[in-house]
């Protein structure tokens, strides 16, 4: 009988020890795996959230710069007056983001500085219009110089201390993004306060910490229950195991709820990143098409410039020919004037000859028969003189008409020459205008090219964020599956105990 009791006691002890060790090992393994998966998931979400904060302020600055570009292009096209700079300042001053946040201190604003540290635009009138080149934050950082340095490098992020709405003591740490707008020489900046972003990150870390505490508490409870079971007889094991399984079931349920919430956030983040990538890709395609049209416009303008030069050259040659024709008309008029004078002289000679012939006829008549033959000759001379006078008169009329036509042609040639000179002047001005258009078209083509490069970089970053979000979502699903398997195992154990 004593041997049976000893054997039974030793067996019970071995069963209790073996069961306790196995239970503790299982709990440690499951707890460790759960914590590893949970921490990994939360760390991915936290890193993604920090990247989103940086991307948001970068996109906000690029959006304001896009509005400034549109304003500048309208002014270049002649649509605006000299108030362009005032309009640009209003764009920067009035631009806001995070406007749905009920806390006005969290609404994002922008400011603009120049390369010498002069503050062009700021929501705080105490800063606007000030030279801030030597401005330092509470740690001695020349933050304005840092903005300008980053803007000259194409844009970048910086950390500094500054005031905020309602508290201008400059003790609030801020992460800003700066990018330069070349046409105005403005360095456009905005940023997030770490106390705002840390609050969101802190909520995620607090949720992470609570989840780990839940797992550790459940694990500690399991270990304590196991130790209590080992200290009691084997008849109470079932009772303690039942309590243990119920606690594990409740903990699994809570963790499952946390994972589902986290999965939903990851899914929303992934969908948002995918939509953003699609929008950027569509915008990039549109900008490529615009770049092609601008390039074609530049080529057409270059061809038009060459045609204008050729036309100007042709008009110049025509002007030379018209000038030569004008000189010829002048010489023709001078020759006609000379011929007219000669014909008038001939007409005068014919009149004198006619008069002499008439006198000779009268004298021959007085002489009688002796002067009859002379009278006949005088009559013939008179007849010839009259015909000469008549022909001279007709020639004079024809020459006068030619002179009138020559003068009329000269006036027409003068008008055509003046018109050709005006056409030459207009073609010169048109050539200058087309040359200016060609220069602007080239600049526009370069600008569109730079926008395409920026869009490509943004698309790459967005695709990387989408990949991280999808990885987060997959990890959440994997974690959810692991929790489901744990719940099944608990249910099986519960059924065995019951």
Descriptive report:
- With about 500 residues, this protein is of the alpha+beta class.
- The protein is built from 6 helices and 5 strands.
- It has a 5-stranded antiparallel β-sheet.
- Helix 5 packs antiparallel against helix 6.
- The longest helix is centred in the middle third of the chain and has 131 residues.
- The chain is rod-shaped, with a radius of gyration of 52 Å.
Count every helix, treating DSSP H or I runs of 4 or more residues as helices: 6
Strand content: 5-15%
> Level of helix content?
over 70%
Q: Over the alpha carbons, how many angstroms does the gyration radius reach?
A: 52 Å
Strand order of the largest sheet: 2-1-5-4-3
Q: Which regions contain 5 or more consecutive residues with pLDDT less than 50?
A: 3-8
In whole angstroms, the N-to-C terminal distance is: 33 Å
